[in-house]
Design brief:
The chain is an alpha/beta fold. It is built from 16 helices and 26 strands. A hairpin with a 2-residue loop joins strand 8 and strand 9. The chain starts with 5 loop residues before the first strand and ends with a helix. Pfam families: GMC_oxred_C, GMC_oxred_N.
Length: 549
Amino acid sequence: MSKEGFDYIIVGAGTAGCLLANRLSADPHKRVLLLEAGGKDDYHWVHIPVGYLHCIGNPRTDWCFQTEAETGLNGRSLRYPRGKVLGGSSSINGMIYMRGQSRDYEHWADLTGDDTWRWPRVLRAFRRHEHHWRLDDPKTAPEGFADMHGHRGEWRVEQQRLRWPILDAFAAAAQQAGIPATSDFNAGTNEGVGYFEVNQKKGLRWNTAKAFLRPTCLGRPNFELWTGAQVRKLRLLQDDTGLRCSGVEVLTPHGVEQPWLNAGGEVILAAGAVGSPQLLQLSGLGPGALLQRLGLNVKADLPGVGANLQDHLQLRTVYKVQGTQTLNTRSASLLGKALIGLEYALRRSGPMSMAPSQLGAFTRSSPDQAWPDLEYHVQPLSLDAFGEPLHRFDAFTASVCNLNPSSRGHLHITSPDATVAPAIQPNYLSTDEDRRVAVESLKLTRRIVSQPALAGLQPEEFRPGPQVQTDEDLVRVAGDIGTTIFHPVGTCKMGRRDDPTAVVDSRLRVRGVSGLRVADASVMPTITSGNTASPTLMIAEKLAGWLGG
């Protein structure tokens, strides 16, 4: 450890933390410490795209959280993956590159009163770290593409390295149902159907550790990275100027360490929508009554810490098909598995290069809806539940989620011990509006599948099944088949000074505490209309710019 302390301590070497470490340590006069509770990303399944199957639920790479029993899910508890490894959730996620919709950021600007969050300005942050495949040869890129995308950044965006006839047929059916084709989900409105672009490089997962730590950041003398280092609490001091964060207490394999800051330095929490509010609460920053019940000294009563939890709930429908092959049967035999492995070894293509979802669609739950409020993740496979074997018949899965849920949950610590997982209660489908959208989305899926483009494949609804018809039954079955897409946000939301539930201001400073910021998905006041990894990078990029990085 640096004997002189650090100018910046970043808690969490995940999606946001790796970018921040890169940007801030670029100044040789600033000493930066990056802390990661998990280990190095040297597990081979982190880098093989299909390896998410071996990383989620694996304590080597995943915190292995569970939600509380959910009333809206008919009493079920869900697995709640969060990356516990260098690269964080970017090492175990679906690799989908998705910014959301321009209206998301216009809404953030309205909620915070800060125009820096408006779409034209966040677009610059997205482009700064983007390295888009279409601009490898600018002459072949569509007109105006370079105005929306970047090419000199670290965050590689590529085409997927496979196509499936069943997915092409679903895309054609979606167009017949009124959803236009699109080749770019990231130009401000993501309405349309097309193949997702992914954060991969030559058939390998491109996580934030590769993008932002190697090789430049790790070679800087003013930068330190600690893995296996779990922050137990923040060091908070009261002086004449008020409450200040002066460092962190860290548990490492060598015992308890207490890194400190120089005057004027900052601690930046980038531990995610679960880890950041958990750490604030453990440190005495959170709902006063909760902290008192647990015997914690309340340093600042911040009721919004752990509140405002939002997530995307996907409703996984499964259809059997005839006359086309899906991954269910392609991988059923030892020979099939061997051929899949050989294709990946020789070409870095085929099913082992697959993101969890390949085809996407954004559309509206009803004709009078002002913007796309549904997202589809479509897969050429089916299974009873994540981690279970594939079905022995050919089928595809069409998962649909409400992009803008009105349900709000919360996250609370249950012990002063940092090693005890918090209680996570998303409260899925807890509002009439969310239940209505769930019903409409299941009906829309049936309309898409009934189109002529799929008729030749004789699709047969396997899950939930054609017997489910009434709105009441559709709500019940949504609770049976709904599961998270792993997009928790909002638990340290940013907001105006007069918002009592805001945890950070629009520049991500924790209310009432100097020297402390949060920069991850937890600061989103409302969830973005799509996958959340790249918006989290944008948030980190914005903060880096404000800090001179």
